[in-house]
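Reopening this ticket.

The earlier resolution said the output was attached, but the attachment link was broken on my side. Pasting everything inline this time so it's all in one place.
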Amino acid sequence: MPNIVILASSSRIRSMLLNNAGIFHQVKNALIDEDEVKAALKLERRSPRDVADVLADMKSRKISIQYPDSFIIGCDQVLVFNGELYSKPKTKIDMISQLNAMSGKTHEFLSSSVIYRERTPVWRHIGTVKVTLRDLSLKFIETYVEEGWDTIKDCTGGYKIEGNGVGLVKKIEGDYFSILGLPLLEIASFFETHGVLDKCQ
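Inline output:
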C-alpha cells in the first residue's frame, strides 16, 4: 500500500520520531530558502512564532501541490533568546559565541508543524519549550564545539539534546519533542483521529 503521509523535511531526527510513533511516511525535502524568508519576515516585524508557522506552512504547501492526496507534514523550529530570533550558527566562532551568551540563561524553542491535504491546511500546531543551560566555561564551550562540530553544525541551539548535548542542559520546561523540532504527541493524536495510524501499521 502506498504511503499516504509525507514529511516535507530532510531532518533524520524528525523522520525517526515519526517512525517510532508508528507514522510511517515518505520524505520529500521542500527546499525553501529559509534565510530569505526569515529576512523578509523580519522586515515585516513578524514575531518568531509567525516565522516558524510561515516556514512550516510554506514547506507543507509546496509538497502538497505535487502530492495533493497525501497528508503533508511541514515543520520548522526557531530559537528565541533575549527576545531575538536566532538562526543556525554558520561558523564555529558563531556557535561558540551563541552558547557563551546563553550559558546559565534560558532560551525558548518554537516548533511549528502544519499538515496539508488536497492543497489545503487541515491542522497546525506550535510546540514550545524553555531550556536553561548550565553555567558553562568558555574553555568547555570551545572544546565542545570543536570536537562536535560535524554533528551539531545544523542545530539551531548548538547542541543535540538527544546526544551528549544533554550535558549542557540544567532545566527543561515544556514539550521535550519540541527541542527535537517536532510536536510529536500532537501530530500522533491528529493522525490517530483521522485513522492514519491504523492504515500505516
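Reporter confirms the inline version is readable. The chain has a mean pLDDT of 91. The two ends are 11 Å apart (CA to CA).
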